[in-house]
Design brief:
The structure is a homodimer of 623-residue chains. Chain A is of the alpha/beta class and 623 residues long. Helix content of chain A is 41%, strand content 10%. Chains A, B: It catalyses: L-glutamate + H(+) = 4-aminobutanoate + CO2.
Chain lengths: 623, 623
Amino acid sequence: MSDWDCPSSSSSSSLSTPLHPPPPFKLLLLRISSVSPIQGYDAWCGVAHGCTRKLGMKICGFLQKNNNLEERSRIVSSLKERTAKTLLSCDNIGGDVRFRRTETDFSNLFARDLLPAKNGEEPTMQFLLEVVEILTNYIRKTFDRSTKVLDFHHPHQLLEGMEGFNLELSDQPESLEQILVDCRDSLKYGVRTGHPRFFNQLSTGLDIVGLAGEWLTSTANTNMFTYEIAPVFVLMEQLTLKKMREIIGWPDGEGDGIFSPGGAISNMYSVMIARYKFFPEVKTKGMAAAPRLILFTSDTFTLSFIINIATDGRLFSQSHYSIKKASAALGFGTENLILLNTDERGRVIPADLEAKVIEAKQKGYVPIYVNATAGTTVYGAFDPINEIADICEKYGMWLHVDGAWGGGLLMSRKHRHKLNGVERANSVTWNPHKMMGVPLQCSAILVRERGILQGCNSMCAGYLFQPDKQYDVTYDTGDKAIQCGRHVDIFKFWLMWKAKGTVGFEQHIDKCLDLSAYLYNKIKHREGFEMVFNGEPQHTNVCFWYIPPSLRGMPDGEERRKRLHKVAPKIKAMMMESGTTMVGYQPQGDKVNFFRMVISNAAATRSDIDFLIEEIERLGHDL
Amino acid sequence: MSDWDCPSSSSSSSLSTPLHPPPPFKLLLLRISSVSPIQGYDAWCGVAHGCTRKLGMKICGFLQKNNNLEERSRIVSSLKERTAKTLLSCDNIGGDVRFRRTETDFSNLFARDLLPAKNGEEPTMQFLLEVVEILTNYIRKTFDRSTKVLDFHHPHQLLEGMEGFNLELSDQPESLEQILVDCRDSLKYGVRTGHPRFFNQLSTGLDIVGLAGEWLTSTANTNMFTYEIAPVFVLMEQLTLKKMREIIGWPDGEGDGIFSPGGAISNMYSVMIARYKFFPEVKTKGMAAAPRLILFTSDTFTLSFIINIATDGRLFSQSHYSIKKASAALGFGTENLILLNTDERGRVIPADLEAKVIEAKQKGYVPIYVNATAGTTVYGAFDPINEIADICEKYGMWLHVDGAWGGGLLMSRKHRHKLNGVERANSVTWNPHKMMGVPLQCSAILVRERGILQGCNSMCAGYLFQPDKQYDVTYDTGDKAIQCGRHVDIFKFWLMWKAKGTVGFEQHIDKCLDLSAYLYNKIKHREGFEMVFNGEPQHTNVCFWYIPPSLRGMPDGEERRKRLHKVAPKIKAMMMESGTTMVGYQPQGDKVNFFRMVISNAAATRSDIDFLIEEIERLGHDL
């Protein structure tokens, strides 16, 4: 055949003209092994480079000197053979095989054809690369502002099946082609939480290094309970927790801690260990062994308050509801969680704490635990930790700082003063998956006293934590946890820390706070906007009402409140339908529904803030 | 330049001979856009195919007819231009841009150069593809039996830094090149839990579709608490839980449930909701509002028993220690968890349960909860659910079935009879991440009574669960959970179910149980092996001692027990040092250390079982 023949005429070529219609997901890339000898010279040069660099360069150089066609043809043929071997040997000597995407018909392939199936390696690689293409395209578009944040559909619409996207499970397997379609559809109908204009949650953004860390974590597919099966991750957790304790300010980073499945569980840990500290017998004898124990946190609200929203003006809600969940779950009872009054910015009033401690003691109850929130969910308020710590010391109570949202500010020299006194806490919750942009989930509970976490939770399960292992079993962390198996949440965070450095986190946090200051300054005097509280926010939370022109002249009163209460939900609904941006809203105590803007997304810029404001105005103008 | 010039002489080519030494991770693949016109003819043909198939085929056919060199050169030049446009238009019309790996110098790139950085798209794609190459190579090798299961190092060795692998975090960022090295090293010093010879845990194997699901999950990076930000995943969870309830046998799959971070938390949920069912006032008033509540489960052991191992022969341990952890955490106290006697196979003796219920009632205590284990951790025993259910009904107690490990057998028509009576349970824990091979973590708590999970845990946090949203808010699941944010554990499972079908899970489970029967039959009469209990195991757990020749003639007694106790740890240590395979061991009650073999790994074959046995013999022969 001529050197110029299209390789489609060669039977071995993946570039052959397909006789059957190409299925979706059929892909073509130059399949090097099927390139004709001479035409493939450069390709081989590339392969030679890629596989064994020094050898590759030599071959390439040699080839350049030999311009005789016949000679070249011979060399390339021989090189082709050698490289095939080299690829294998690369693998054996610890180098890596380059991956190549080839034309693969997934319509006739099933999960059973993938590894560990015989000859499953090639379909496995092609399938994974196909998935990666779907994911990289998703990522690319997520950062593109011309992409919608979401393509909203109601539950019944998705359940009925959107354009063939069938959520129902069946008895028989589907082809990998269908599985790839399912992957695309699952992303298509989801929400792009990494989009520069997604502001709906405390956790936003898509950190690429963190994402890579998650991909690796799931590939390693192991469990945190013992050093035996997660040696690297267990050590990373230990070192990272120590670093976090140093940043908190505990001497030499001493203490203990563990990563848990979210801030609510971290907070639950804090209540458990506080109880264990003062009443260790509860572990064996139950709550009956202790007197009536009292917990304190800033005020929390429930839906019933919302219903009474217009009549009950004294109710506020600041601290996270997880403290309440913990008090219910752990057997304290929510009535024994006493809610503390807060100032207009949502910060605990220390005098109120002391008064309520005294009151509880007078009733014969035993106050044991105070939660100070560093960064409340709605207002982003920081409780005055030092003043609360004084009271805790005075009355012998455990001080927990819930820094799930605000803990990240400890990384910023400019903003960490907002947590002044945190080093006096007995325990701290800190979620890197919120303000620090680590992918979900990543939450740490940090404890100042070493050993107490173990004492509180250990049950000494011999089948896991054999004392006669050949390594130092103090590294087995499982018995500290209330979980048995524990997901590896550390790697992505560790990798991000390596990649950004402490300074990188600091820059991210400072930037987010600068952006929220920009937003605050932009709307504080803007027509149609009203701040929920006065003064610059402490965190990135900016809480505001949008007042449509129809309400602007209206005197404050029941009618206006009722109508204003409906504005944010209506704008939000339109926002979701149009898919342009997303921001949260909620009522709070006597305040009717208002927007809570939060910024933790590294992709957000001033233009996105501008866009949000204009979008609210556009959507809300005629309400 | 001649058509035959090596493109390295062209300044635009990525195949140019590198003037600087190629850094690690520098990659070469044919960069199509830089191929010289004529030589690139075939490459262009491929591109034409890949992007727009019909057009591509036309062009390719046309090119084949035109063998004139000059003409070809002209066509290819024009094609190159057109295809560049086509690639863009592919993107715009909803198709995807093919990804291409190009030569990238990561030593000068940092996390800050990735998206959302300006011009960050290309480095982002190259970085992610590089990571994917690391991962696909890891996967490839994981399934290759010539690869070690692990490369063991002691904690102090890893902490000191292995060949430049430095776990310490620093203030300044590291280059992406170093980040990629860190990724490789993290995998290198870890444990290949997907290796066909990894039998150490109940969760083993690496399911490719499940893995793809996890990669997608982390890319979507969202949270399960509301439909608003996880519409697809929330519905998938709902449908999958319903399917699981149908398989359990609850009428029409009615009931409730949630995915939780592991079996221990799922079991904790079951205790919480049982308490709420009988004493809902505990939620608000604490345990003080209830009488002394009693929980039952099969016997559990603690390390202190191991120390007394030679003297105390009556102590056994069957059920999972999470029930004990829950009793401590939730304020019952471990003393109010009563351990039930089991038969020689580790199954609860129902008469003992009834006797202990009566005894507790006579003391004035209130028995409220029985945990029946379906597949104990060590023996793989299935408690007789129907007989336990009879007693629960008689005395008005909550029946929980902990099927974390054995629940998967419900998928097998051949083996599901081992859970007969499960449909009578009030709640069931079922971990797809164990027997069903779903990547970690994936655990469900399923509840027969609808609404009770919500009643038990809801705190109605208005900032999350606004009742005035535009969609049906009953789909917001967050308030059922004790967590706030909740990791998306459903997608990988849903995707695997789609890809395998119910029948695929059944085949997997049947195969694993067949393999364990093979192992059992192989060693039950083999010299040097002794079974821990007689008869075929109910689950894939095969428990046995290896008796080295030095102990074979020795009469049973203290000396032999002491020496035998040390055999399994020694063999395990050598196994880990040599890295060839991994299997667990532990003592149990009066039984000195024995091996517990479990099979949940889809990659395992009879040859791997043979290998394990021979490896134990090889390593233990001279002990």
